[in-house]
């Protein structure tokens, strides 16, 4: 995917090349993060909608991301990842514009809700294109042997942005109302589009393009593990604010930040373990830690204990995506890895898309603890699946 000179970089220079690309992921997810702590209360309290509708608004983004993954993957493989990322940033800017309109229509709840759903659809498409485009763009800049590092740094940008974005969104709403969320999104995306335009593209790999269903079939076992392990993040991101409110606690935004900080810390300090121990082993250990965190969160009787549980979830979930992703993309040729990454990412979209309305249904009586119990069971199931894959495919690969 890249020229020879681009693959022979190491150390700080390599990291710099990656950061120059994943900074666009950071800016896009900053827009997403700003909405996490303020969108559910806006829908639930200001518009007078129930918990199910609040969950549906959040999940709409994930559904749109799911539906646009194939487009993002194939565009990255054929037109280049830079163009894919640029399209995604533009979609995020459109989303911000629609969010401004939704805020201005606050006095008409159904009109505001409809506009907000359109904004979330645009944001979902933007997310898929930015995420896939930036990862493949970064790999093209430093070489496929650094795939795990690129995915890890992209995740650092993702959840670092969520950690910053959640409290930033609260501050922005306090300063200028919900309309500030849309205005900030448009401003950030215009800056990102300008910077992205100046970054060099990478060469598109030649070769046979596998049909998407064949690519999907090759990565499906790993994607299923990712999906099961992603439910915990989904319920935290979507319902932690309402969970804290039901318990009479404050500090939901700092808890989201704690999750993000722990996620980033593990990526920075332990990202090397994927190359050293292998994706299967790292994913298995990570999923078990996440399971423990979800159990702690479900049984917490104090805000401090709940924050510890969320932090453990951040630690556990941190390396699941890159650990399983590395072994997933290795199952296709270089010219199909954009499609493979997109197909693999579909599974987290499905998980997060289902989590919102299903979690809202489980918590419709005002009891949010059972959601975290269900998520813990699914995380444990993901660990068992990963162990099975390791015994099967992992041993064959070593042989």
From TrEMBL:
Membrane topology category: Multi-pass membrane protein
Principal subcellular localization: membrane
Keywords: Cell inner membrane, Cell membrane, Membrane, Transmembrane, Transmembrane helix, Transport
Domain Major facilitator superfamily (MFS) profile residues, every copy: 170-399
Presence of the UniProt keyword Iron in the record: no
Cell compartment(s), UniProt: Cell inner membrane; Cell membrane
SUPFAM superfamilies documented for this protein: MFS general substrate transporter
GO cellular component: plasma membrane
GO molecular-function terms, A-Z: transmembrane transporter activity
InterPro entries linked: MFS (IPR011701), MFS_dom (IPR020846), MFS_trans_sf (IPR036259), MFS_Transporters (IPR050171), MFS_YhhS-like (IPR023008)
Entry superkingdom: Bacteria
Ranges annotated as spanning the membrane: 21-43, 49-72, 84-105, 117-139, 151-172, 178-198, 219-245, 251-270, 282-300, 306-329, 341-362, 368-393
Keyword Magnesium (UniProt): no
Family: Belongs to the major facilitator superfamily. YhhS family.
Record-given protein name: Uncharacterized MFS-type transporter CA260_17495
Native organism: Dyella jiangningensis
């Amino acid at each position: 995917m890249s020229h020879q000179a681009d693959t022979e970089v190491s150390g700080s220079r390599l990291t710099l090349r990656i950061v120059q690309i994943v900074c666009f992921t950071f800016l896009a997810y900053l827009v997403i993060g700003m909405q996490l702590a303020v969108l559910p209360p806006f829908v639930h309290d200001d518009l007078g909608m129930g918990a199910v509708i609040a969950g549906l608004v959040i999940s709409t983004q994930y559904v749109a991301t799911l539906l646009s993954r194939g487009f993002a993957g194939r565009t990255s493989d054929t037109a280049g990842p830079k163009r894919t990322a640029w399209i995604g940033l533009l979609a995020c800017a459109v989303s911000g514009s629609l969010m401004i309109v939704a805020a201005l229509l606050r006095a008409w709840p159904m009109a505001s809700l409809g506009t907000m759903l359109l904004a979330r659809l645009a944001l979902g498409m933007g997310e898929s294109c930015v995420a896939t485009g930036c990862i493949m763009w970064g790999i093209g800049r430093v070489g496929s042997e650094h795939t795990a590092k690129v995915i890890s740094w992209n995740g650092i940008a993702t959840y670092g942005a969520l950690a910053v974005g959640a409290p930033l969104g609260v501050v922005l709403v306090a300063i200028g109302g919900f309309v500030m969320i849309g205005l900030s999104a448009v401003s950030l995306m215009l800056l990102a589009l300008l910077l992205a335009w100046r970054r060099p593209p990478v060469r598109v790999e030649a070769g046979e393009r596998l049909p998407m269903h064949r690519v999907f079939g090759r990565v499906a076992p790993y994607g299923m593990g990712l999906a099961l392990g992603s439910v915990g993040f989904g319920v935290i991101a979507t319902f932690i604010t309402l969970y804290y409110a039901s318990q009479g606690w404050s500090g939901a935004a700092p808890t989201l930040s704690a999750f993000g900080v722990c996620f980033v810390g593990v990526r920075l300090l332990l990202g090397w373990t994927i190359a050293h121990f292998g994706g299967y082993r790292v994913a298995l250990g990570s999923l078990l830690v996440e399971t423990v965190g979800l159990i702690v969160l479900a049984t917490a009787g104090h805000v401090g204990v709940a924050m510890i549980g969320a932090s453990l979830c951040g630690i556990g979930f941190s390396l699941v995506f890159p650990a399983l992703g590395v072994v997933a993309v290795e199952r296709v040729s270089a010219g199909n890895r954009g499609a493979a990454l997109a197909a693999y990412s579909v599974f987290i979209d499905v998980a997060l898309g289902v989590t919102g309305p299903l979690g809202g249904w489980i918590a419709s009586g005002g009891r949010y603890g059972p959601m975290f119990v269900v998520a813990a069971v699914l995380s444990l199931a993901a660990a068992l699946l990963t162990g099975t894959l390791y015994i099967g495919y992992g041993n064959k690969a070593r042989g």
